[in-house]
Specification:
2 domains, three-stranded parallel beta sheet, alpha/beta, Rossmann fold, four-stranded antiparallel beta sheet, 185 residues, Hypothetical Protein Ta0175, Chain: A, domain 2, 33% helix, globular, 17% strand, single chain
């Protein structure tokens, strides 16, 4: 892989990993993953959801300590802290803009809470059948298809649903029938 210098400069904005580690060490039920769970722009933690504060409180704690970062929980046991300008969705949008791709014709696939940001917006989203409960809140979004099949079969199901290898079927927003019926009477 080749690093993109523009992207690195973009996400390095306000990235202070040591300050984040100091602030996060004050919270119960959260501990650092080993070095192989860390990277230059990701601080990985394990989280005990019975003991740790809720994600809303973690974000508030970071803000109160003047730390600017994104907080991502996956599988209800992993917590990632990444730069405020970094996420799967932000990377997707950055490179689509850089390379001139139309975001509404990009297919993305997710299975856990760490994919939520990438699935939101105007992409064509597929959530595979073996997804974690964190993604259930996206079920009402018309550009996100929830596949019944697991893993690669769920991806294939999503490709077929959108006719992604053909003309690409872009779904239309659904009109709430109860509202429209109320107006008609």
């Amino acid at each position: 892989l080749t690093k993109d210098i523009e992207w690195q400069k973009h996400i390095a904005y306000r990235w202070e990993p040591e300050a984040i580690k100091d602030v996060m060490s004050q919270l119960p039920g959260i501990w650092l993953q080993p070095p192989d769970g860390q990277s230059e722009y990701r601080i990985g933690y394990f989280i005990d959801t019975a003991e740790a504060p809720r994600i809303r409180e973690i974000k508030k704690h970071l803000r109160q300590n003047k730390v600017h970062a994104n907080v991502i929980i996956a599988y209800n046991r992993y917590l990632d802290i990444v730069p405020v300008r970094a996420s799967k969705g932000k990377a997707l949008r950055f490179f689509a803009d850089k390379w001139g791709f139309s975001i509404d014709r990009i297919l993305v696939v997710g299975a856990s809470g760490s994919d939520e940001d990438m699935l939101r917006g105007n992409t064509l989203g597929v959530v595979v059948g073996n997804h974690t409960p964190e993604l259930n809140k996206l079920k009402d979004r018309y550009r996100i298809y929830f596949a019944k099949n697991y893993y690669a079969w769920g991806i294939i199901e999503g490709i077929e649903y959108y006719d992604f290898m053909g003309d690409i079927r872009i779904p239309e927003p659904q009109v709430n029938n109860s509202i429209s019926k109320g107006r008609a009477s």
